[in-house]
Specification:
7 strands, about 180 residues, about 25% helix, three-stranded antiparallel sheet, alpha+beta, four-stranded antiparallel sheet, single chain, Nuclear Transport Factor 2, Chain: A
Length: about 180
Amino acid sequence: MPIPPDPFPEALERHKARWEEYDAQRYLRLTDDFRGQPKGTLAWRGRLIPGYPRIGRIFDNLQADRPVLRYNWSLYDSPALFVPRRGPRRWISEAVDPDANIFIRIERQTLRRLPQSGDILFTIKVLMDPLGAIRQHPGRVSLADSMRHQLLALNADELAYKGLTETRDKVAAALQVIAGPAEAA
């Protein structure tokens, strides 16, 4: 999302933002919530990245014998691995078909400091499946329900960043259908 021009100079003046640098990359970070933007939001290369973690701290504390693993998921209108576009997804019309027009991209990301050089190795494995493939998963109810709750918990900036502002409720409804009725305990 483009950087709003007004809040950041004011945030700097009010000591709610500061310039940071890591690996020759300079960026602005909010140090407190400010005008609807959450603490940690970065302004970098003309874009806002809401609530981004302190990546420099993560890199500085990375130890060779303790690799970091994280998973990330997002939703797309195409099974392509490279999807460079940004902005709202315009792929869900009135009928939501999680088997045809909604794809879940799951990323397995690792960071490891190499013991001899001290360099950092980043790996990523990307899986793309139709959202409806969750129906085949043995834990489909908890998986679809967890994804639905995460989706509904995104704030407006996070929704815009993921391109889901206009489609969140329809995708949440599709996840509810995939989960089916709750099983009796």
